[in-house]
Amino acid sequence: MFRSETMDINMGPQHPSTHGVLRLVLGLDGEVVTDVRPVIGYLHRGVEKLCEHRTFPMIEPLTDRLDYVAAISENLGYCGAVEKLMGVQVPPRAEYVRVILAELQRIASHLLWLGTHALDLGAMSVFFYTFREREMILDLFEAFCGARLTYNALRIGGLNDDLPRGWTDRVRHFIDIFPEREKEYEDLLTVNRIFMGRTKGVGILPPDEAIGLGASGPTLRASGVDYDVRRAQPYSAYDQFEFDVPLGKHGDTYDRYLVRMEEMRQCCRIIRQALDRLPDGEIKAKVPKYIRPATGEVYHVVESPRGEQGFYIVTTGGEMPYRMRFRAPSFVNLQCLSTMCRGRMIADVVAIIGSIDIVLGDVDR
Amino acid sequence: MKGETVTTPRTAATDVSEILRRLLLLELWVGLWVTLKNQFRPHITVEYPKETVDLSPRFRGMPRLRYHPENGEELCIACHLCEVICPDDCIHIVSEKKPEGKGKRLVSFEINYERCCLCGLCVDPCPTKPLTAIYMSHDYELADTKREGFVAPLKVLLDGSQQKEYRE
Amino acid sequence: MSREFIESVGIPTIQVLIVVMVVPLGVAYLQLVERKVLGFMQVRLAPRRVGWHGLLQPIADALKLMIKEDVIPAKADRFLFTLAPILTVIPALAALAVIPIAGRPFALFGYEVRPWISDINVGLLYLLAISSLGIYGIILGGWASNSKYSLLGALRSSAQMISYEVPLGFALIGAMMLSGSASMVQIVEAQRIAGWWYVAPQFLGFFCYLISALAETNRVPFDLPEAEAELVAGFHTEYSGMKFALFFLAEYTNMIVVSSIVTVLFFGGWLRPFPNVEALVWLENGWLVVGPLVAGLFAGWLLDQKLGTGLRLMFAGGVLGSVLGVALAATDLGGWASFQLPAVSGAFWFFLKVSFFLFLYIWLRGTYPRYRYDQLMSLGWKWLIPLSILNVVGTGLAVLLAA
Asked: Does residue C221 have a cis peptide bond before it, meaning omega lies within 30 degrees of 0?
């Protein structure tokens, strides 16, 4: 006589908390999620194909637009890949500046994640506080390269421009005040019982499953797997700095949160070391005016704020790559979503999407 | 160096101070204090059309062309390098051989701002050193009502666009 | 017309008209205050474009909502869809009828005016009954929209409101037992005679009531029915224009109502702090402080803007103004103020307390994340209901022993 059925609900592509144009088809049994099917591709721009018709310097602005929240990491990965392909030795000053930029970018990206994650859980004010601090980093980037989001700041072989005068002091000022600001976010969230209730035990990703799904970055490390590209296969100048890789234990949303919070502190530590030891000298290696790497292929990975960002380039000796392929951390981490969400409530889905920190530009490319 | 675990143990509170802290909702008061404190911090937003933010000297706005600082002619030598490197194909240059002497002369120089992504790559190869002929200006108000308004001819590139009228 | 008729029918009718006309305006400005306070908490500017510092923003918003297209979804139940906002807003406004804003009736043009619309002897029961009616509008609205998000929001809302109705009622019983009356006016009178606000003996009850009231009015951290991050806008996802405005009006009126109830039941309504301490009688003239305080703050702020000294002069102006105001209040304007204008004094304290609770609501909204549905239920059933029952039992024992 009574009939019960699950209800399908479309979350997105226009939904306040799917962080872009992600569409989730949720199977709902009341409030309980029985099935999650992510539908992607709304932001597909065919960047990989576009790259096949661009010369190597022209590709860098395109990489800005993959993971537009952490463009420096993409620039760094791409330039690193081409440099590896050509066998270019980047001068130490350039490498140090790259590290400073990449770590500032990691803080900025984590701040954006923190703000939106907290906003998804209903805590409005954190969003504005994190944006206040992120703004300071964007100002630093603007002073360095002239752009605030799509930086195009690095060049194959080094940097385009040296640091502007007084820039290092501004960075120092930022990393001096940042820890106390981070303390404020922690006061609002880390110890808050509502926040803990919303995140502890939510969206558990067991370590074996995390490895099996290919997760990387904080999503993987929160499950307790000690893998950080900066440590595992150091690139740029990362082998010269001391830092800890924060690890979680339970693989839930709260651990992913804690891991990222700790990562921001470690970023400050790396930046401080890099500023203290910043060498003088050249900022760009000698690279030919027309970049034509020899026939070959290369795979280069960097640790972007979201995880392992890979660049695979195949060349046939021309000034354009024969094939480009990006390993997008957001895309791979998104695959963990249905594992994490099944059996949870609809409010948890929002918390989990926030905690794996996807950027749709990176997912869809 | 190994990774370092950051999470706290998830057991029930046994500590007296911990129980007291939970009972008195201490962390909730701390949260309220943070928002109250921030109420007296200076605001960070800017009322945009009325005030604008300060731009850093390297800010990359719309690309423009420079006049020669001495003879008042355009600085561009029509080498087409910026046109070649532009990833969006937004620069169009028509040049002709100079009637006397060596080199080329500009006939027309157009930048299509609908396509331009403000990446600044065009400035890199510009051969007129130390002052590059093409440079990233501080104009960033790109909106227009007509499509044609986005295609900037030589004159606009050299003299800059008009200031928008709504600025008080 | 007889004098009695005017006093018993005419004046209440005028009062009702005033409430119905003033409350929407108050709600509009309450919303502006909310935006301003949230804005300042979030280190931004909040509305500033319409009018001086955004003072006309609520008017502009109201006008916009009025002339906006009123969309009714094609598959919606048109009748219920229209009925729902009306059903929500009427109980919210009706609840204001039993709220007393001052103590003694006063004379106006020779007629006796009571500073409440109606003082029924079951005032509390009336409030509980009428406020639980509002939920029908929300359920109907969510269901009639024929949208999944609305339906989920409405389901959440109904479960939430029914669960929290219980601790809400229990929390009020303590105050009722202490005063021995369910009439709002009598409860405040009892507090005056007792010499303390009921928040002191009834702290547990106050606490339970405050939390349940947050849940009843769907405010953060219990704003699940309209959790914008999950359900887009919950039960009013499909509403627009004036119908949306009515839901909005109901929500904020409910906020005012529950703040008034807290004030009346636990914070002595129109009574000054320590109502029986003779030395503090100048507090009766507390409203006299407002003028100098506001003037001082404003002058200081203007100077700050001129000199660019942050907010230091504003602070100094505030201190100066309040000192001046206290002095003014102490003189009692030569013994004239407290005797001539008791209603003003009562209304001042009443509105001050209500404003504080409204501010608290906004403050909480600016600070806390949102509970999850099951956590909300477990908080209600496992904590608030036992606590409030405990409070009732404890109060009952205390009353019994004292008698």
From this structure: yes
Distance (Å) of CA B109 to CA B87, B88, B89, C237:
17, 16, 13, 51
Q: What is the pLDDT of residues B22-49, one digit of tens each?
A: 677 777 787 788 777 777 777 778 888 7
Give the tens place of pLDDT for each residue, A257-296.
888 888 888 888 899 988 888 888 888 888 887 888 888 8
Using CA atoms, how far apart are residues C295 and C194, in angstroms rounded to an integer?
36
Q: How far is CA A351 from CA A120, A348, C278, in A?
A: 7, 5, 55
Q: Which of residues 229-248 of C touch A (CB under 8 A)?
A: 229-232
**Alpha-carbon dihedral sign for residues B13, B18, B19, B22:** negative
Which chain B residues are closer than 8 Å to A142 by Cβ?
55-56, 58-59
The interface predicted TM-score (ipTM) is 0.79
Strand, helix or coil for residue B144: coil
Question: What is the CA angle A312-A317-A363, rounded to 5?
Answer: 20
Chain B, residues 88-127, CB within 8 A of chain C, namely: none
Contact (CB, 8 A) for C68 and C240:
yes
Strand partners, A23: A39
C304 contacts on B by Cβ (under 8 Å): none
pTM: 0.85
Q: Compute chain C's Rg from CA coordinates.
A: 22
pLDDT band at B10 (very low <50, low <70, confident <90, very high): low
Helix (H) or strand (E) holding B60: none
Angstrom distance (rounded) from CA C253 to CA C251: 6
- What's the per-residue H, E or C state across chain C? CCHHHHHHHHHHHHHHHHHHHHHHHHHHHHHHHHHHHHHHHCCCCCCCCCCHHHCCHHHHHHHHHHHCCCCCCCCCCHHHHHHHHHHHHHHHHHHHHHCCCCCCCEEECCEEECCCCCCCCCHHHHHHHHHHHHHHHHHHHHHHCCCHHHHHHHHHHHHHHHHHHHHHHHHHHHHHHHHCCCCHHHHHHHHHHHCCCCCCCCHHHHHHHHHHHHHHCCCCCCCHHHCHHHHCCHHHCCCCHHHHHHHHHHHHHHHHHHHHHHHHHHCCCCCCCCCCCHHHHHHHHCHHHHHHHHHHHHHHHHHHHHHCCCCHHHHHHHHHHHHHHHHHHHHHHHHCHHHHCHHHHHHHHHHHHHHHHHHHHHHHHHHCCCCCHHHHHHHHHHHHHHHHHHHHHHHHHHHHHHC
Q: Which is it for the CA torsion A174, A175, A177, A181, positive or negative?
A: positive
Q: Helix, strand or coil for residue A332?
A: helix
CA dist., res. A116 & res. C318, Å (int)? 37
Q: Which residues pair with C106 in a beta bridge?
A: C113
Model confidence at C22: pLDDT above 80: yes
Per-residue pLDDT, B168 = 40
The whole-angstrom distance between A107's CA and the closest CA on chain C is 20
Q: What are the tokens at A360?
A: 């749709």
Helical spans, DSSP H, in chain A: 47-51, 56-64, 71-86, 92-120, 124-145, 167-188, 193-199, 207-212, 218-221, 229-232, 253-276, 329-334, 337-341, 346-356, 360-364
Please check the confidence at residue A323 and state whether its pLDDT lies above 50: yes
CA separation (Å) from A10 to A27, A36, B86, C20, C143?
9, 10, 40, 40, 18
Contacts of C366 in chain B (CB under 8 A): 35
What does the buried/exposed string (b/e) look like for B21-59 if buried means 16 or more CB atoms within 10 Å of the residue's CB?
eeeeeebbebbbebbeebbeeeebbeeeeeeeeeebebb
Residues of chain A in Cβ contact (below 8 Å) with chain C: 7, 9, 15-17, 28, 31, 118-125, 127-129, 132, 188-189, 192, 194-195, 197-198, 345-350
